[in-house]
Design brief:
The protein is mainly α. It has one domain: Up-down Bundle (Methane Monooxygenase Hydroxylase, Chain G, domain 1), CATH 1.20.58. The chain is built from four helices and two strands. It has a two-stranded antiparallel sheet with strand order 1-2. Helix 3 (about 80-85) packs antiparallel against helix 4 (about 90-135). It is elongated. The termini are far apart.
Length: about 160
């Protein structure tokens, strides 16, 4: 129930967020290389870090509430507000933690969005390639039954 304990937890959370960012970049490299052999493993590692971050966030919330209560502040206090009511050097340190969290959150959001776009593009390309080899098309008849086209010759560019 002290600012030192809160700061220690915040440092741990920052470390985990940095590792999450690294894992997301690894995932992006796997996606952009087209070598999806390791995609499931990279995604699993991201999920592991997300779960660990959730645990640390819960611990942080408990510790911040206890510290706020000891300081005569309401529970559920934000990090910005906790920094405002703290003495120096804690005030500056808590503001730095908050600034780092905002920066990392923006970076994580950007790379996660880029990864989603890569996954969507890969899924779409795979679906289109599979449809070009199959007999069916992604359309339906007037009765709601999948329309089947006749088999026709196809040219495959092996250079791809």
């Amino acid at each position: 129930m002290s600012l030192a304990e809160v700061s220690t937890i915040l440092w741990r959370e920052r470390e985990l967020l940095e590792l999450l960012l690294f894992k997301l970049e690894e995932e992006q490299l796997v996606l952009s290389s087209g070598r999806t052999r390791w995609l499931a493993r990279a995604t699993k590692e991201v999920e592991i870090f997300l779960e660990e971050i959730r645990k640390v966030e819960m611990l942080r919330a408990i510790e911040v509430d206890a510290t706020a209560k000891a300081m005569g502040q309401p529970t559920g206090i934000s990090l910005a507000r906790l920094a405002e009511v703290s003495d120096q050097p804690w005030q500056d340190l808590l503001h730095e933690h908050r600034k780092a969290f905002l920066t990392m959150a923006a970076e994580i959001h950007a790379i996660a969005e880029a990864n989603r776009e890569l996954l969507t593009a890969g899924q779409r390309a795979t679906r289109e390639a599979l449809l070009s080899f199959g007999e069916s098309t992604p359309t339906y008849t007037q009765h709601g039954v999948a329309a089947v086209s006749s088999v026709r010759s196809r040219l495959v560019d092996e250079a791809i």
